[in-house]
Amino acid sequence: GWFALAVLQWGRANPLATGAMTVAMTNRYLGNDVGVGASFRPVLGRLVPFVGTSMLLNLMLGGALIGGFLTCGAALILFAFLWVWFLFTPCVMVIEGTAGTGAMSRSKQLGTGHGLRILGASAVLFIIYVAFVFVLPAGVGNLIVARFHSPILQQVVQQTIQIIAVTLLDPMWSVLRIMLYFDMRIRKEGYDLALAAHRLGGA
Questions:
Q1: Under a CB-based contact definition with an 8 Å cutoff, are residues 84 and 122 in contact?
Q2: Interatomic CA distance for residues 169 and 126, integer angstroms
Q3: Which pLDDT tens digit goes with each residue over 116-146?
Q4: What percentage of the chain reaches a pLDDT higher than 70?
Q5: How far is 33 from 177, CA to CA, in rounded Å?
Q6: Measuring CA to CA, which of 57, 108, 109, 137 is 20 to 30 A from 185?
């Protein structure tokens, strides 16, 4: 349940934990209750393909994002396309059992034609993330300095707010990915969520 999601949250930067988080979030979205071990099991069964695909995907997205900053935003257009095309790759690997370029091609197939919907939803979550993880801690920190003249207290309060915000908001990226994934499948393929819940719950 939610305890499993909280445990998995702390390893979110690890491709293995990312896959387990996707399993846990997908089961939660479909109404199945799974623990930490059950969340890792499907990923461990395809560990090498999953980690390899995740590394390739992170290199592509990271390279485009860094290139966007270095070129004053030009490469951000490429990042937007890559985000729309490959956002669903972890879902495809976990739910459909495909990895590598096959999973990436399948993700691209699902995302194509719905770029504005995907980017719009991602932008809303990104704005909320920035507001609570960066803007709010900075604002509170400035108030503390103005009131108590204590830089140490400022840092403690800022970091505490950031840790809480990141812990609460980071899983929402997985939630967004999974909701959009099933939304695309329902729109394009008439996907049956009840059947998906039954299959994934019995995996």
A1: no
A2: 10
A3: 999 999 999 999 999 998 999 999 989 988 8
A4: 84
A5: 19
A6: 57
Name the pTM for this structure. 0.78
Do 44 and 17 meet the contact criterion of CB atoms below 8 Å apart? no
Structure confidence at residue 88 (pLDDT): 93
Token pair 């939803």 in the structure block, residue: 121
Asked whether the beta carbons of 161 and 137 are under 8 A apart, the reply is yes
Rounded Cα gap, residues 89 and 99, in angstroms: 8
**What is the pLDDT at residue 8?**
39
CA distance linking residue 169 with residue 149, whole number of Å: 30
Q: How much of the chain is helix, strand and coil, in % rounded to 5? A: 85, 0, 15
38 token code pair: 């059950």
Helix (H) or strand (E) holding 189: helix 151-189
